[in-house]
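Exercise 7. Given the encoded structure of a 155-residue chain, write a plausible sequence.
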């Protein structure tokens, strides 16, 4: 059975769920760099959903052509595109016109009788000011859900 955009959507959701637990606090059981990798993986998988939609033969060609316009008309997805491409190519991209890049990181540790937990607040710096990275991730997920629902690809 050929791969479909639903596989990439589900993968993006799993990375979002990992990011969510990190934003809320979870057991601290690996080096801190791994948590950053999970955040980066969300934004990369989120942006790459467009390629899966565009290349999925089960998706109508009209919808495939509409993907880029949807990203261009949606600030969170434009920022996500820039972050993803910057991570991929080791140079800043500016599709959004806002020059986004990852900024301040604030780790929190909770110590006590139970397991040590960690949370991470990460900012995305833009020309118009900082944005909480998890809030941006949530807006990206909502933007994809609206696109998929609006085009009959998700109920």
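Solution.
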């Amino acid at each position: 059975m050929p791969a479909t955009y639903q596989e990439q959507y589900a993968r993006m959701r799993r990375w979002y769920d990992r990011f969510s637990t990190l934003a809320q606090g979870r057991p601290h059981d690996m080096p801190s760099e791994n948590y950053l990798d999970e955040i980066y993986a969300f934004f990369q998988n989120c942006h790459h959903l467009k390629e899966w939609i565009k290349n999925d033969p089960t998706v109508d060609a009209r919808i495939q052509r509409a993907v880029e316009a949807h990203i261009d008309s949606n600030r969170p997805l434009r920022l996500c595109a820039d972050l993803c491409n910057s991570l991929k190519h080791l140079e800043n991209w500016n599709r959004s016109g806002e020059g986004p890049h990852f900024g301040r990181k604030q780790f929190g540790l909770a110590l006590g009788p139970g397991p040590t937990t960690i949370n991470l607040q990460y900012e995305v710096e833009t020309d118009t000011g900082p944005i909480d990275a998890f809030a941006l991730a949530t807006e990206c997920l909502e933007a994809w859900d609206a696109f998929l629902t609006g085009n009959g690809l998700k109920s």
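Remark. The beta strands are 26-27, 101-110, 117-125, 131-132. Students should compare their own answers with the one above.
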